[in-house]
Amino acid sequence: MLNISKTNTQDRGLEAVGEHERQGSYFYPLVFLVCASLRWRYICQNACLVILLPIALFACTGSNSSNSRADDKPQVVATSTIIADLAEEVGGDEIQLTGILQPGTDPHVYEPRPQDSRFLEEADLILYNGYNLEPGLIKLMNAAGTKARKLAVGEVAKPLQLDKGKGEVVPDPHVWGDVKNAIAMVNAIRDGLIKLSPEDKAEFTQNAQQLTTELQQLDSWITQQIQTIPPNKRKLVTTHDAFQYYGRAYRIPIAGTLIGISTEEQPSAQTVKQLVESIKKIGVSAIFAETTINPNLIQTVAQEAGVKLAPRQLYSDSIGAAESEGDTYSKMMAANTRSIVEALGGKYTPFPAETQKK
């Protein structure tokens, strides 16, 4: 029994081995095929990488070349919104312009942001007002590691002087209040851009001439409008001392201001009281708030002096927001003139160039 069992077991073992060998005869070729397939797939993948990688690199290089061509325009940075507007008119599509201050921002108290340093460092030309209008940005500009040319556009105009008190007299930076000064600023911007990009001289010259023609018309129009105000009412009281050039150019005396040259100043109770008494004495019919300054104090002055606060605020240190009536330098000056003429009893007629643009 044992021998029979052993023999049967051996037979079954031999049968199993034979079956295993038969299965192996199918299994090993299958493994070979799978391995060969995987190897072929690996080879194909690497071949695709070899073929596609240069294409991808070429595409990236082409894209970078396109961006590089777009960046070939001279990089111009303007500090104030007024200078940015004039530079945009003169430079047109030939420059890449970055304006640091946004419409409605007060340059006197502006605190530079981290990205402002990058703008200044990457610039080819920096246009700023000068006469310390934008002290924070001037300090940053002088500290930045920039190789850009710096042009103090406002300093092409001969400054009027302002007394800050205690014997300190400083140049008044609000030179654009006289449109003739703005024309000189346009010419300075034109010349600066021509030095930067001589091949675009024709475009810069033509753009500057077109803008100058409009500004000459604006200058004459403002003179005519102010003259419609009765002489005894032709007196201007504003929030801060930003309209000296305007008053001198268009013969409307500045009868008083709540604060001095910088909006950073805080008027004392004594200053407010003196202004109220002055307004009562000279008999102005209206006083004016400004778009970049909180109107609460000047409203208080108007109430205590018993005079009207003009319904339309004046643009002083910045142009207006997009789509506003003062969103360019020309429109800002026209809007201010309208506000003054209507509030002080003059006869307002729209600026022709402004009418044609609508």
TrEMBL record:
PANTHER family in UniProt: HIGH-AFFINITY ZINC UPTAKE SYSTEM PROTEIN ZNUA-RELATED, METAL-BINDING PROTEIN HI_0362-RELATED
Which GO biological process categories is it annotated with? Answer: cell adhesion; metal ion transport
Q: Does the keyword Nucleotide-binding apply?
A: no
The entry's protein name is Metal ABC transporter substrate-binding protein
* One family name in Pfam for this protein: ZnuA
Membrane-spanning segments:
none
What family does the database annotate?
A: Belongs to the bacterial solute-binding protein 9 family.
Q: Which keywords does this Swiss-Prot/TrEMBL entry list?
A: Metal-binding, Signal, Transport
**Any GO CC annotation of this UniProt entry:** cell envelope
- The superkingdom listed in its UniProt entry is Bacteria
Organism expressing this protein natively: Pelatocladus maniniholoensis HA4357-MV3
Residues annotated as signal peptide: none
InterPro entries named among the record's database cross-references: AdhesinB, Bact_metal-bind_prot9, Lipoprotein_PsaA-like, ZnuA-like
Q: Which CDD domains match?
A: PsaA
Q: Which SUPFAM superfamilies match?
A: Helical backbone' metal receptor (SSF53807)
Cell location = Cell envelope
Instruction: Look up keyword Protein transport and say if it applies.
Output: no
Q: Give an example GO molecular function.
A: metal ion binding
